[in-house]
Each structure stands twice: as C-alpha cells, then as structure tokens.
Amino acid sequence: MTPIQFSSGDVIADRRADYARMLAEAGDHAAAAELIEQALEIVPGWTAGWFLLGDYCEKAALPAKAIEAFSRVAEQDDTGLFGAELKLALLGAAPTPETPPSAYVEGLFDDYADRFETALVEKLNYSVPQKLFSMVAPHAPFARVVDLGCGTGLFGVEVAAVTQRLEGFDLSANMLAKAQEKGLYHHLGQADLSDASAVDSLFAAELPRQRADLVSAADVLMYLGSLGTTFGLVRALLRPGGLFAFSVEDGGDTAEGFSLQPSLRYAHAEAYVQALLAECGFTLLDLMKTDIRMDAGKPVFGILFLARLTA
Ligand SMILES: C[S@@+](CC[C@H](N)C(=O)[O-])C[C@H]1O[C@@H](n2cnc3c(N)ncnc32)[C@H](O)[C@@H]1O
C-alpha cells in the first residue's frame, strides 16, 4: 500500500499545517481549519491536507465545508486509503459503502500493529478472544483451526494449546508480522475477506477446501459491513459439521442489517447475522451478548456467535 503523505512537500504549507495541528490539539478546530485552508492554497493537490481540513471542519461543526473537503479527498484518492467515502457516508453526503475500502483498513492496521496490544488489551479492556474461546472450548480439541483476521494472534494465544494445526490470515502485513513473532501459527497468509478472490490465498497449495474444524473471526467483521462474501469463504474452509465462531458489534435491530458507526466500524443486527448464517447452511449453537471493549470512555456492546455447518 502507499503510505499517507503527511508532508505537503512545501515548507511554508507544512509550517501552517503544524500550527493548525497545535490549534486543533488546543481545541480550536475552526482556527485550525482556516490555517489548513491557507496551506491548501499553496498546495491544492495535497490529499492529506484536504483530509485534515475535513476533519477540522467536522469537529468545528461546519458540516458543509467538511463534505466539500472529504469530497475533494475522495476525488484525489483512487485507492480509498483515507476512507473519505466513510466520512461522507456519516455526514449523509454519500450512501453507506457495503464494505470499507480495503486500502483504508489495511493502512489503519499496518499503522496500528506496533501499538495494538497495549492500546486494545491494556487500555481498552478488549475481551473478545477470551470470551469467544470460552464458547468454543467445550468442543475442543481441534485438528485444524483457521483464524480469519488473526491480527497479532490474540485468539491464537487462547486456542493454540487445544489445536493441532493453526492457520492465520489477515489483510495487514504488519499485524501478520506480529502474529508470526508469537510462534503459534503453522501458516500465516495475507487475504482480504471482503474480496471473493481471497480464495486464491486461502486455498493455495496444501491448503485444501473444507479443511478446518473451526474457523474464527474475533473482532474482524466490524471492518466489513456486508458479510455475504466472508460467510461464503468460511463455508468453503469448513469441513461438514465444522464450527464458525465470530463476533460483531451489536447494531440493535437496524432494518438495513448493518450500519456505519461514528467510529468508522460497522455494527450488525442480530437478525441479519442469523438470517445469513441460515442461508449459508449454518445452525446456531450459542450466542453471547456482552461488552467487548471500551471506546471513547464508553463500553461497546457486541454479540458473539457459535454456529455449526450443517447443510
Ligand atoms: C481488531 S483486530 C482483531 C485481531 C484479532 N482477531 C484479535 O482478536 O486480536 C481486526 C483485524 O481484522 C483485520 N481485517 C480487517 N478487515 C479485514 C479484511 N477485509 N480481510 C482480512 N482481515 C481484515 C485487520 O487487519 C485486523 O488485524
């Protein structure tokens, strides 16, 4: 992926951007927006600058200007790295994307990988791996587990002792590198679960179809939105009778099935997940509604599912 260009390439514009950042940190987002606008007059092609302008305008309660700035980012950023379309959707200026741009999620986690465990586990009370493992433990041991969106390997830590062969797949190379350091996974690979062509890496040489007796996705599906493609991949990974254990953020009973949250993650309705499980041939074995982590000082509520492939 291409790194985000945080320097504008112009010394004066960079200096204005630095002042803008200081003003934003002090809480004066309107003044920060004015300074970044001045920087953008010098370097109008600076995509990260337009993103900062959108961010400051949003925080300064200037939604029309924020929409203008994020639209400019969307025009200039064909990879979707900045996630501007998610911002536009939240501001009501674009439809909610079925899935976020993969480059945005990949960039987010590549950047986060070094801090992930301290940030999430130590500071935000992240508990999905342990809670999900408590649901699958009665079905252990496992011959072959495929951990989707394995991240740094926190679910691997729980399940490794009762698993003969553990595989992990993730979109982010930096998260995979952290999982590798744990030395728990027999195979690690890069795969995008929102893309049906992920089959190429999930089923490469010596990785046959229908090989897993457990597929897990701990705290992953909130980065996906529509889940049809991923559930299809899970079905192809599982042997008949195999288990699928996963979590979603609890979206209540939203009619659309999933909704984009201010956190830029998706929340899913229980009814949407249950219907999709049934459609893909799964029978629900267990469900847990619980808090899964803190965000901005408040608990985030999730639903953990355990289902069996029966049809
Ligand atoms: C919050 S982390 C959870 C990691 C791990 N499962 C755990 O419980 O600690 C979410 C992980 O999902 C991965 N992810 C998000 N979207 C993905 C996608 N479309 N395909 C593959 N992995 C994805 C991210 O790269 C990240 O490592």
Defining traits:
seven-stranded mixed beta sheet, 42% helix, alpha/beta, binds S-adenosylmethionine, Serine Threonine Protein Phosphatase 5, Tetratricopeptide repeat, Rossmann fold
Task: Provide structural commentary.
With 311 residues, this protein is an alpha/beta fold. It folds into two domains: 11-95, Alpha Horseshoe (Serine Threonine Protein Phosphatase 5, Tetratricopeptide repeat); 114-309, Rossmann fold (3-Layer(aba) Sandwich), CATH 3.40.50. The chain is 42% helix and 22% strand. The chain has a seven-stranded mixed β-sheet with strand order 3-2-1-4-5-9-8, sandwiched between helices. A two-stranded antiparallel sheet has the order 6-7. Bound molecules: S-adenosylmethionine (SAM). The site of S-adenosylmethionine (SAM) has 23 residues, from helix 6, helix 8 and helix 9. Residues 102, 105, 109, 128-129, 149-151, 154-155, 170-172, 175, 191-194, 218-220, 223-224 line the site of S-adenosylmethionine (SAM).
Question: What does this entry show, briefly?
Answer:
By secondary structure, this protein is an alpha/beta fold.
CATH level 1 name of the largest domain: Alpha Beta
Q: Compute the number of structural domains.
A: 2
Order of SSEs: HHHHHHHHEHEHEHEHEEEHEE
Major beta sheet summary: 7 strands, mixed
Mean pLDDT: 94
Helix content: 40-55%
Distance between the termini: 39 Å
Query: Taking strands numbered 1, 2, ... along the chain, how are they ordered across the largest sheet?
Result: 3-2-1-4-5-9-8
Structural class: alpha/beta
Which second-level CATH architecture of the largest domain applies?
A: 3-Layer(aba) Sandwich
| Count of β-strands | 9
| Count of individual helical segments | 13
Using the alpha-carbon principal axes, give the shape: elongated
CATH topology tier name of the largest domain: Rossmann fold
Distinct ligands: S-adenosylmethionine
